[in-house]
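Incident log, entry 3
Record: Ribitol xylosyltransferase 1 (443 residues)
Problem: checksum mismatch between cached and fresh output.
Input:
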Amino acid sequence: MKFTYRRICYFIIFVYVIFSLYAAYSVFFSVKVVSRVHRVVKKIPVDVRPVGSEHRSSLPLPGGEGKWNPWEEDEQLGLLHLQRRREAFRLYQQHVSKNKPQRYRVQIWGKAAIGLYLWEHILDGTLSPTHRTAQWREGEVVSGNTVFSFYTGPAVVQGHLPLDTAHIVLVLNGHEEQKISYATRWLQHVGALSRAGSVLGVAVVLLGDERCTNDWLHPYLRSHGGFVDCLFLVYDSPWVNEHDVLQWPLGVATYRDFPVVVPNSQLVNSARPYLCNFMGTVYKNSSRETMMRILKQGWEEECVTATRDKWLPLETAESLQQYHDMLAQSDLTLCPVGINAESYRIFEACSLGSVPVVEDVAAPGGCVGGPAGPLRLLKAQGAPFLFLRDWRDLPGLLEHERTRSKVEKAERRRHLLEWYAGFREVMRERFTETLERAFFRHG
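Fresh output:
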């Protein structure tokens, strides 16, 4: 019995020793086999071929020098796909950059009041500071592919402007000798910058002479050997050729602080107590005297007037408000010829929805009249005005106005306000396109 028990113990010890030796061999000498679930993959640098390459690196086979990774091909395909996406995005960015509109920069130096009409009414720009008596005012606006910067005020003087572009628009007044002398000094200053190479392109917006006598400007035009590439000229000048000399609207009297009027439903739909209005200077031996005589023949109650014998350059706050109210409360605004047929009153009436009744007669001087008469810019844009050749036809016109219904008058006001907004947009596009062509798209 003891012998049997001892043999069993020896057998157990023998088995334990054999198992221990097998375990030691398995740990230290056997090749490791890792299951697919718990395997640890050693990171091997992947040879990623360029996008579009048809050649792929060969995968190591089982039993070769490298250890087999059953997901290696999927990983390489993923990297190739990622690189293709990055390359496609890079090409897309290049396409966007290539087709992105180029932005040009142009500075406008406003040294005449019509500069504010250009900036605030045509380009829809704002100025900082907003107070009109500030010594230095500036603003920036984008039109077309051009970024316009505007500078105005008494402190805007020669040699003290931040010249961050080589293209300049000068807004000048050539209305009288004193203004011409001042404008000439600015032109000489810009001419010096042009000769020095600091300025490459120059345009001028000019409030010209009411009789269209602007010969003093000729030597500065590039077509006459000067440096001014294009000219935007107020009034019906014979110089206008729609190429380098274009006609420009007179606009509202910004020097009298006439504001930017934002149209609203009240301007269109509110009944107006007056049939017509006129507020202005009545010159001796002018057609205005004829007009006023006719109004006094039974139209005083329906047409509101405020006249004076002498022209005044500035308005008081009270007279400006009175004028504003007269326009806003009248169906029609009478616009007689002065020294020129084009007047601020025409544009101011449009701003407030009062239809201009325009004396369609060319004034004496060198301005172009022709069969169509004066105001060719406004007529070319289809201005919905009432035109009279003779103020003696006014009573018949007013009699017809009496028969119009409120609905008809409201619809006409709406049409006038829409036309004037469209006219300013056309002028904005015309101004921008002309400068981009003259400054940046030669040929």
